[in-house]
Amino acid sequence: MNIFVGSLPFSIEEADLRESFEAYGAVDSVKIITDKFTGRSKGFGFVEMPSDEEAQKAIDELNGATVQGRAIVVNKSEPKPEGERRSFNNNSRGGESRGGYGGGGNSRGGENRGGGDRGRY
């Protein structure tokens, strides 16, 4: 079972988290999520346990437990449905494209909002 662990102290390490969960059974993997630029913990992670029964016992016992002065949140991790995932690699406005500065759609970067060539309109 994949388990979400939130409200983690920023100083906790994966080995410490593994040790906490191993008290309830075998642990396949532990991953604390970090910021890709700074490497600093984001304060949450995931623990994978092969036995659903042991994982549920860990969830029941550790949810709300205090770790380094913080009450942690522990629950079963549910994958997001495919339709709810956000992609930052494409335009999230459904294909609408607004070019350049000023929101105009032409290749010159927007509309002319004054100055110079008023007689042209």
UniProtKB/TrEMBL annotation:
Chain ranges of the RRM domain: 1-79
PROSITE patterns, alphabetized: RRM
Region (Disordered): 70-121
Record's compositionally biased regions (Gly residues): 97-108
Bilayer-spanning residue ranges: none
Annotated GO MF terms: RNA binding
Keyword terms, alphabetized: RNA-binding
Ranges of compositional bias, category Basic and acidic residues: 77-87, 110-121
Top-level taxon: Bacteria
InterPro entries given in the database record: Nucleotide-bd_a/b_plait_sf (IPR012677), RBD_domain_sf (IPR035979), RRM2_NsCP33-like (IPR048289), RRM_dom (IPR000504), SLIRP/GR-RBP-like (IPR052462)
Name recorded for this polypeptide: RNA-binding protein
Source lineage: Bacteria, Pseudomonadati, Bacteroidota, Flavobacteriia, Flavobacteriales
